[in-house]
Structure formats: C-alpha cells, structure tokens
Specification:
The complex is a heterohexamer, with three copies of chain A and three copies of chain B. Chain A has helices at about 95-110, 135-150, 175-180, 210-235; strands at about 30, 40-45, 50-60, 75-80, 120-130, 160-165, 170, 185-190, 195-205, 235-240. By secondary structure, chain A is an alpha+beta fold. In chain A, strand 6 and strand 7 (about 170) form a beta hairpin. Chain B is α+β, with helices and mostly antiparallel strands. Chain B has a single domain, classed as Ribosomal Protein S5, domain 2 (2-Layer Sandwich), CATH 3.30.230.70. In chain B, helix 3 packs parallel to helix 5. Classes of the chains: A alpha+beta, B alpha+beta. Chains in contact: A-B, A-C, B-D, C-E, D-F, E-F. The interface of D and F includes residues 35, 53, 79 and 85 of D.
Chain lengths: ~240, ~280, ~280, ~240, ~240, ~280
C-alpha cells in the first residue's frame, strides 16, 4: 500500500476523491436473512465495505463456566476474511480484531434485553468480507439487523458510521483511502430512538468543537441508517442510490 | 491427535428412517435421484478487492473463496515454481456446530484434499508463477470460507476454488533496481489454468451410494469417498473420509458414478464462467 | 472473541450505596471532588538498565513502564519512520483477578489506546527515529507493567509511558562496513518529543461523571470515556470503554471535564521531570 | 532434497532403483511387545521406514468431556520424530500429521468393537521413527498389531500398503525417492478377512482402469501382510527376506 | 552484548571488576509490603538486580482440577519484565523461565507448611524488574520474605545466592558481566536455621573440592541474608552499605 | 508457571514399605545395591537416515536420541561457534501419564540440564562447527525421544545423547558461488568431541541416597540430585530436581557416590562404542 501523501483528497469544488460531498455517505445496502443456519443474519454494504453478521441464540453456552445467573452472556467476534484486505490478512486473531470485538460487544450490552435470558449465550459473529474503511461501524449496523432478524429483544436499533477529517474538512463515512491520509477518524454507533451512544472512538486530532460537530454529523447519519434498518426488517432488502 | 467426534448433531429417528426408505426407492429428501447433485449456483468476482473470488451455493451449503496473491520465495526443492496455499476456515456464522478457533482436522482435511487435487493435476501452471527464477515467485493464497454448512463442503469448496482461480488476475509489477518487486494497482494477467478439476463427494448409506450428501445424509452415512476428476476424465485425487469402510466394488462403483456427476459440476462452471473458462470442456 | 465478563469483583451493596450517595453530594470515598484525580506520584529513571523508564502511582494503582530500543526495519508503508510498539501486561502480582497468560482484551485495549494517542498526536517524532532511510530504524518498545491494580489503568499507564519516553536515551552506535549497526554502551540522545499527551478516564455513574475512578468506582460505573489530550488542548484520542452507553451531552461534558483534569496530569509530569520536559506546558 | 528429475527409476529390465520388480514389496519386519508400559505395542518396518505403535486402553478418558455413552472413544496420534525425516521436522503437529491422524483413526472406527467398551478411551499412539515412504500404511499395520497385542477385540486385522505409478508403471510399496518423482501414490488399508477397505487415498493422476488395477495390487499385498501379522502375533517377531 | 573475553575480571589486588573482594556480596536491600493488593510482597535488590515477589493465598484455586485433598498446591511463576534485560525479552514464557519457575517452586515445597491448608492454592508470583545476574536466588529471597509477609507458616526462612568461578577464583554473588565470562555459576538456596538446602544448581565446571568450598561460601552468605530477612520483617526495610 | 504436580502415580503402601525396608538393608527391588545403576544397553546408529542416533535401555527405561544437522546462522554473541540445540519430548507411547502436547516443565528441565552439561564442559567442540565465520555454522539438533518411562530419564537421555553425538557424521558440502551451502548425500566427518560427559541421578529416600532410581523409587523419593561428570572427573553440572531438600553433607556425599556410578556409565559407553569413542576413558 503506497501512502498517497501528495494526492489532494478534496477538490476545488469541495468534492471528495470519489465525488461525494463532505456530508454524503457512500451508497448503503442492507439485507437480512442471508444465511440459513443462523437464527438471524444480515449483510450490510457501505460502498465497497461489505460485512456479514450472524446471530445464534439465546442458546445453551458451549462451555459451562460461561453462565451468568441473571442475564445472557454476549459473545462477539469481529473477524476479517483473509481476502478482505489489500494484503492478505492472517487468519489468526489480530490485536485490532480483539479490541474491536470488545468495543462492538460493549455497544450492545446496554441495548439487548439480556435480563430476559439468564443462563444463556447470545452469539454475534461478524465477518468482514471486504474492507474499504468503516468496517466496525458497518459491523455494528449489521449486528443490529441480525439481532432483530433473530428476534432478540432490544431497547432500540443501533447503527454506526465514522466521521473523518481530511485536509481540514469534516467528512462523513470515510473510506480506506481517506482514512489512510486523513487527520482523524471518529467512529460512532448509537441508538437514536433512545438517545444512547454505544460506541465512540477517536483516532486522530480534533478540537473540542470539531468533536461536537463531527458527533452531530454522525448522529444525523445514524438516524437515517436506523430508518433504513427498519425498512430492511420489513422488506428484507434496501439500497440507497449509487453515487 | 484425532478423536472420535463426540459432538455430532443427532438426526431424529423418524427423519433417519425417511432418508433411508427414500434412498431404497432411489429418491432423496430434496426430490432428486441418488446420483444428482443439488442445485448449483456459481458466481465469480464477488469480492472486488481480492485478486480472484467466487461464491458457490450447493443446495443450502454456501462457500466463498477469495484468492490473494503476493510475492514470495519459492520452496527450496521447487525453485522454478510458484506456490499455491489452500486454507479453509469453518467460521462460526456457518453452523451452530462451528466454534471460533484455528482450523480443526475437518477444515485441514478439506484444504489439503483440494490442495492436492489442484497440485497433482497441475491445474494451475505453477511454472508460470515464477517472477525471478529461484528467487521471486507468486504466492497464491486460496482461502475457503464456509458461509452456511448443509453438508458436502468438499464439492462446494472445490467448485468455488476453481471458479475463483479462473477469476484471478495477477497484479502488474515492476522490478526495482534493488531487485525488489513493486506491485501496481492494475491487475490484468489471468492465471494459466491447465485443467479444470472438480471433486465429487459420494456417500455410502447402507448398501447405497449417493452423490452430494446434504448434512442429514452425511450424518447418517457410513462413510464418504471424495473423488477428484479433471475435465479429461482422469482421476486426480481420492480421499476416503469418515469412520466407516467400503468394499472394493463400492469404491469402483463410486468412481464411476462420480465421473458422471463431475460432468454436472463442469457444466455449472461452464455456465457460470462462459468465455472465461480457459479450457474447452468436452 | 469478546465475552461479557463473568468473573467481576462484587462490590458489597453497602459500599456501593455509600459510593453513590457520596457522589450525589459531589464527594468521593477518597475525600476528593468528582473531577479531581487521586494523588499522583511520578518517578522517572527507575530501571537503570532500560533505555527509559518511569513508575507512576495514582492512588493505589501502580504502573511501571520500561522502554527498550533496538534496531529494526521500518514498516513497508512508512519507510521514513521509526517504530513505536506499545505492549501491556497485567502481571498477576497486581491483583487477585489477574492470571498469568497472554494479554487479554483489556490489556490489548489499554496498549492500543495509548499507542494511538501517541501516534495520532505525533507525540514522539517518528521521523527522527530513522537510522538509514528505508532500511534501519529505531524500534522503541514501550512495555506497560501493572504492579498494583486499583482502577484507572489508562491514566496511570499513559502518565508512566509519557514519563518513560521523556526519560529514554538512544544508544550511540556506529555503522559497520557491512551495513550493520553496532550499538555502544553509551546512551545519550533523548527521543524527540513533539507533544505531551495524557489521557483522562471519566466514568459515568448514574447521572454523574467522575474523573479517575478507583476500582470500586469502575466496578459500579455504567461506562467510561477515555479522552486523550495534548498539552495544547487538542483532543488526540477517545475511547468509550465499558458496557454501557452515554448521551451526546454526557460525552461533550466529559470532554470538557477531562480537559481540566488533564492540566493536573500535565502539572504532575512537569513537577516530576522539571527541566527534562522537552516542551513548555502552557 | 534435490529432486532427481532426470533419474530413470525403472531400468531397461523393469527393475526399480533398489532392484525390486514392480509388484515387489520392500523387506518387511514386524515385532510386538516392544514397549513395557503400553498395553500393546508393535514395531513395523518396510525397508527403511520404521514405525512404532502403542495402544493404551480401554481406560478412563483423561478429560471427562470425551466420554461417549455407548461406545469407546478412539484417540489416534500419528506423529513423526524430529529426526525421522531428511530435514529435521519441527515437533509441533503439522497439517499433514493432523490429517493423517484423522484418516488412520477412521481406518479403525469400523474395525474395533467399540460398543463393548462404552465410556472408555482407546488410545493409539504412532511414532514414525524413520520415514522412507509409506509411513501411513506402515502406521496402520503397526496399529493393528498393537491393538491385537493389547487384546482389544477387532472384527479383523488390518494392514496397509501404497501403490504408486512411476514412469507409467504401477508399482507396489513406493519409497521416498519413488514418491518424490512418481505420477501417483495411492495408499490403501484393508481388513481382507472381511472385505473392508478402511483407508483409501490417491495423490496423483490415474485413469479409472489404473485405480482398479492398483487397488487389486494393494489388496493382494495386504492379504500377505495380514498373514504376516497373524504369524507375528504367535511368534512375536517375523521378517521377510532381504532384497 | 559483546562478550568481553579479553577483559581481566580479577585485578592484581584480587579485586573484581566492580571493586568487590571474592567473598563480598553486592549491596543488598530488602523491603516488604510494597504492593497493596497482594497478601504479602517483597522487593529485593542485589546490586542492580531487582526482583519483586507477591504472594496470594491460601485461597481457592482458580481451576477446580488443581485441588490437592491433603495439602495446599503451590503455583510459582518466575517472570522477567521485557525491559529487565539488555535486549528486550519477549513476554512469552521462555524455556529458561519455565525451568526456573520449577526449581523455585521446589525450593519451597518442603518449607511451607502446606499440610495446614488442604484444598487451597498458594501463589508465588515473581517479577524480575532488572536483571544483572543472580535473579533466581534473589527471587527465592524475595519469595521467602513475601511468604512471611503474607503470614504463610514456614519451617524456616530461605535465602539464596550464587557462587561463581572467575579466572580460577571462587567468588560470591556473581553479576551479569562475571557470569558471561566465568567458568562456573552455582546458585544455592537454603534454610540455614534447619540445615536444608532447597535449591542447588551448577552451570560450569568445578572440581569436587571447589563444589564443597563454593557451597560453604554460599551457606555462609545465606546465613547473613536470612538475618537480614528477619530484620526486614521487623523494620520493613533494610539495606547493606554501598560498595 | 510451575504447579505442584497433582496427577502423580500412587505407589501402593505395601510396595512403598518394601522399597524403604530393602533400602535400609542396602538393597533394591531390582536386586542391586544402592549405588549401582540398572542394566545398561547402548546401541548407536539405530536411525540410519539421521546424522547420528542412539538408543539406550536403563532397566526398563528406554530413550532414543536422534541428531539432525543443518546449516544456520550463529548466535550474535558467539559468531565463531556452531549451535547445539537439545529438545526433549515425552511422547505418549512411553507412559500412561504422558499426554500429547508441547514439552512440559519436566521435559524442558531434562533438555536444559543435558544442554548445559554439554555446553559448559565443551563436550562438543563448537568452534569446529563453523562453516563461514560469523555467517554459516552447523546447527546440531539433539532430539531426545522417550520410548518407555520407568524412572531416571536424566541418565538414560544423557547416555543416549552422548552416544548419538559420537555417532554423528556431518554431511559433505560445497559452497556455491552465491555463498549458499549445498549439502551432499555423503556424511563422513564426525563431530569433534572434547569430553565424554554423563549425569548421575542420585535420589534421596529418607536418610539414604541411591543411584539411578526407577519410577517407583523416584515417586517415593524426597528429592533428587543430578550431577554431571566429565571423563576426567570434573563436575560439569548439577541440578537439584524434585520437591524436597538435602543437607550439605548429603549433597557432598551424593557427588562422591555419583562419581563412582559415572565410571559405570562411561564403561558402558566404551563397550558400546569401542574404537569410535574419540577420547580415552581413564
């Protein structure tokens, strides 16, 4: 991966390298019921980023020590296919995958009504099939759909998106090229119907004001994504127009 | 170490007897005959950023194969050949029985059977994968990803592997003065494919042989014979897989039955890939 | 794979209600207000044989950071930069809850949050770590060693990391004719530090936000927001860590509260390191 | 290991590189009771290939989750000594060893009367001491002897041998040199007394007719090997003449 | 680490490279109660060698299979911090650390009154913070203090020290430079109050007479160290004068 | 981490008291005296394809050692020495107590004690293992394989290691123009052996010391002292191994007793290897 340091990523008309405006998401598609065996499943695409989520459970935990007497235990695995990245990714779990599995799990602990299912396990398995930036937020979006598809009761639907800063401009839904050269990447996931932000990270440098502005951009977009999720749960498949 | 499987799905008695009595009449639960594979859907080029890819549905079994290539060094004993490395992961989205972790003996067996069938048939021309003889060669990583498991991962994975290899385009590159190879964004050169290869999974259930068992059939089967064929009709690999045994006659009959089912698989590859198929299937 | 923690320490009900009712009055069990960190003690240069080191006490939490450097090759995509590798170990001396073994998700998260805060803020000038461009660079290993765990490992580890990096001296070296780098005993050259960075761990308990939670507070907290600041007041990293959620307003308020606590931490670094601090803190 | 591509491996008189005729096995030796601690043990040699098998059990399984209520659980390990191969083999289990452990286990699941010993484990440990081709079939042969030596009831004795194709000729019992350059290697294990083929693999290219012919060559040899096994169980040690 | 083969390590006056006489230890300091969470803890320094020991227990074992019905189970981990050595040490346990954990555990099995605490575990965790020779014997000394600090009943206090042979001379308490070029290194740990030697190793070549003489030098020093331990348990911190 | 062994074989009380009362009379269960090893059988050259090998029986304990050599790079701090790497595997054929898996602390201790005894005594001339100084050296892998375990793996393994090293022949080679080393089929050059080394395992049972304990004796023993000797009578290594302790007098007595038993072992090596023994044993 050559790092394109000299490339201008915002042109004179304020357009990004793929023609999007700063507050424009990539085309999004959502589909549920894509896997036969899973109790719930979803395939979510943001541009070329493609993430599959499967939910199994509530079910008996594989190992007995994993029982919680008063609630369901969540198991979350964020995993990248070896062919999803520019250079082949080794199948062994990376430190990045371990961290993201944790923050994605924590994005749902307060959302799933775990008290309804004591002594069970709910498994959320996420497979990144193609990575082009924004995989963790696509993963949260796919997991939310797969959980709903599995009939797991939740306080509200969750979706995620990242805001980046490129050449001084805050932009929505950064892709890999933008992430590689940008000054900041701030992934956010939220359940807008109940006002909860469930995943929040910042990699990069922002002023406090930019954090606030970026957060609002993300929350705005998340509202739209949750609307798309609702539509998907009715129609099984939705897509936004091509750029 | 290999252990007798102790967490096998239980097929309810009623379903089991249905399967067996249907087979005795020459029929299957999915309304097909004993020697016909399930519905096949092959789609190549499904992971745009990989150098090659294909997704296959065989009934409800779904397998995705991605091919990534990079530049590496040849093995010492084959300095004039590139490397093809096949790996299989049974990711837990695919079945309630799959747990996260390194490949188990089943995933390893699957990858190795496919690897050998490709290697021994010389399906991909490994000599054409040399960049600088003895020093730099293409390393072709074939990653088999099981998305949904309903039996017979062998045939679904082999079809997806074959389609993904045909779909593969090597990146353009330039040799730097330092001897290093710098890859470019463009990917144009297809792999040189000498042979089209498929496996056929033939299960033995009681005194019957059936082709392309689904999960329930695999579970009640005595054993399975996986036979690999090239498009010229040669046998290019065999693996008895599963706990039971077969007689001499059953093995020979299975190889015969399989060669007919192989035509069905070749036909599906032809339909899916059309002109891109580098060899003419009889 | 990440699992809901199932071996969490239980805070007795009485203690829990004490914590909560104190917080409602703006007080803490350790007699401080909601937005003030615990007593801080920073000591640099505690491991003489390491290239840099520091030990930090934050209340009863104790963290030791050692820095070792060696000569390595740069990453392919950053040939003109040295490497900083942060690793955290929760060694079992530190808590009855820590078991020997490879770093778990909490240790990995801690190391990565600190690593990113350093990297994104360009706190250490990575370009100054190049020995021979594209070929030989300094690899700076930051090893975080938790000695006693009483909550908020983030801030204690970040302070110790920062102090240890400031304490670090690169070995003198000579380039041999073979191109190899031979290190000498003498260590004189400090790292080029561009920014002083600290994190502030803000826990949400009920409707309250508190700074620098101790173990009991962390255990009863809904969630935590870790915000990293540079000495110029920029936000250089954020991590929501923990099972719960926050509102938009809570997040913005936390960032505000944190920026004040960050001053306390910067001040402690200044007091501990004095003249050795390479930048002037406002 | 230089690959001897130019070497003729069948001479003008139809002799192989070590003087054997195509249908000729290497000298075979079998010995039982070679280890004191094991319940049964055997050392089998095909030429320079030397394989040791030990059987422990039926015994209580080491770990409780390994209990099968209605039958004995088989554990099989095929393992190569680091010094058994031309280049030192790392002691960590290779993918090849994992696969071969599986196919060897499956060669005995239908042979051992496992229903007699519910809730127990029968362990078959195989150590390849020297590898010169045909180790998996020698392993099956040694395991069969060790099982009989341990008094584990079986439907019949099992033996194995590989058929290869070299320079167009089907040959019995290929060694490492022949395997390295040959067109095909087809290991077979069977219990000829009950007509069961229990291990069957083909690595290489054959016509259907060659598979049939090669299989018959193997079965013929396996009959002889099982006779040698029977003799060994009586006399503790047998050997066929030197080439 | 260049190996200083040409350096004279004993000068014309019989002084070692740091000015010590052959039978002279480095300055020693001992401190207990250095960690809040541990049931007992100690920090021990021999010159620049610095070792921390923490004791937890007797407590319920983490895993149930680790229960001994008639005694406490000891768990000992000798572990080096990555920054403790000249070249960074990988955090994964090395073969050396595994062996030293064993010999240190065995140095206490006959000292701790384990029969008093059946079905429990006593954990001794040792962290080498800085390594300059003699870490294993410093570890035993620190562990003895931490056990006493935790109130674990012992038959007697234990301390350890190494004797080396450098340029033909037996010397006490070898440091890393001396160990690197010396002819022998003989670590000894003992409980002098009851005459028990609990750890004894020799790496190097000695005559029988030298073993005897060296052992006596070590035992002499260990007596002094145990006196220092006793003083430390009263005063919490003691140190011997600087060289 | 090291744990008190919790799966030790139980020696029945009756057998235990037999062992103890015999020892009190200066006798052993195998009808030998306290200071005499069991019957020894040493056979070198048992694995023809290895560069060196030997099998040793010590009573019912059986150990096979194979030596493989390849070309590698020297360690940085010893550029003018070859490498000897000793590894021990307790393969599960050898005992109902051995489970498959990576070497445990006992196997690691065994390998390291033997490795140190060889290294410190300079038994194999490591300087003679250099091919191109600083760049290419012989790496000699000594793999200890336990075939049957009836106590005292130390002495059996050391004898087998010594015999296998004496049996070892380095391959002929040529240096290619590229600087690479190409090995030939022929193996002619023996290793340069400076010293013959053996260990003697002396167990303490009650107030008695006995040489070469079998498994039952090891199990009831208080502790063991493993002493390594060279053929010139020097002590070249010691390891107290086992949970108990010894007095000063017991240690000195053990070293004395051991030096006599060492002669028995040296004699066995001499008988087995005859002319091939590179040094004269007094």
């Amino acid at each position: 991966m050559a790092k394109a340091t000299d490339v201008k990523l915002i042109d004179e008309f304020g357009r990004r390298h793929d023609g999007r405006l700063p507050e424009e998401m990539r085309p999004v598609s959502m589909r549920i019921n894509v896997l036969d065996n899973a109790d719930g499943s979803a395939l979510v695409e943001f541009g070329r980023t493609r993430v599959l989520a499967a939910v199994y459970g509530p079910r008996e935990p594989v190992q007995r020590f994993m029982i919680l007497p008063d609630r369901a235990l969540l198991r979350v695995r964020y995993h990248m296919a070896p062919f999803s990245t520019a250079e082949r990714k080794s199948p062994a779990p990376s430190r990045r995958e371990i961290e993201l599995s944790k923050v994605i799990r924590e994005a749902f602990e307060d959302i799933i009504l775990v008290k309804y299912f004591p002594r069970t396990a709910i498994d959320i398995f996420i497979e990144v099939l193609q990575a082009d930036g924004g995989t963790r937020t696509a993963a949260v979006t796919a997991a939310s759909l797969a959980l709903a598809n599995a009939g797991i009761p939740m306080k509200a639907l969750v979706a995620g998106i990242a805001v980046g800063k490129i050449e001084g401009v805050l932009v929505l839904d950064v892709d890999e090229v933008e992430d590689g050269v940008g000054e900041a990447d701030m992934p956010v996931a939220a359940a807008p119907d109940i006002g909860k932000i469930t995943l929040f990270q910042l990699n990069g440098v922002l002023t406090k004001e930019e954090v606030e502005k970026g957060l609002d951009m993300a929350l705005e977009a998340i509202k739209k994504l949750v609307e798309l999720e609702k539509q998907t749960l009715v129609e099984e498949y939705v897509t936004t127009e091509e750029v | 170490m290999s252990l007798t499987p102790f967490r096998v799905p239980i097929v309810p008695e009623l379903r089991k007897s249905t399967i067996l009595s249907l087979i005795a009449k020459g029929l299957r639960i999915e309304e097909r005959d004993l020697y016909t594979p399930r519905l096949i859907k092959i789609e190549a080029g499904v992971v745009e950023r990989a150098e090659g890819s294909a997704q296959v549905q065989l009934g409800k079994t779904q397998v995705l194969v991605g091919v990534k290539v990079d530049v590496g060094t040849p093995f010492k004993d084959t300095p004039d050949e590139g490397v093809i490395a096949v790996n299989a992961e049974f990711v837990p989205i695919a079945s309630p029985m799959f747990e996260p972790g390194p490949p188990d003996e089943n995933a390893i067996e699957l990858a190795r059977v496919i690897d050998r069938s490709l290697r021994e048939s010389n399906a991909v021309d490994r000599k054409s994968l040399v960049i600088i003889p003895g020093q730099k060669v293409w390393v072709v990583h074939v990653d088999i990803y099981v998305l949904n498991y309903d039996g017979n991962l062998f045939d679904a994975s082999m079809l997806a592997t074959m389609a993904a290899l045909i779909d593969t385009r090597l990146p353009d590159y330039e040799e730097l003065e330092t001897g290093e190879i710098r890859l470019k964004e463009e990917k144009k050169t297809p792999l040189q494919i000498n042979k089209i290869v498929t496996t056929v999974n033939i299960a033995k259930i009681g005194d019957y042989l059936i082709v392309d068992p689904n999960l329930d059939e695999e579970t009640v089967a005595d054993t399975k014979l996986i036979v690999a064929y090239d498009h010229e009709g040669n046998v290019v690999g065999i693996q008895k897989s599963g706990a039971g045994s077969m007689t001499r006659e059953e093995i020979l009959k299975a190889i015969d039955i399989g060669s007919k089912a192989a035509r069905v698989y070749f036909k599906s590859l032809e339909e899916a890939l059309g002109e891109r198929l580098p060899v003419k299937i009889g």
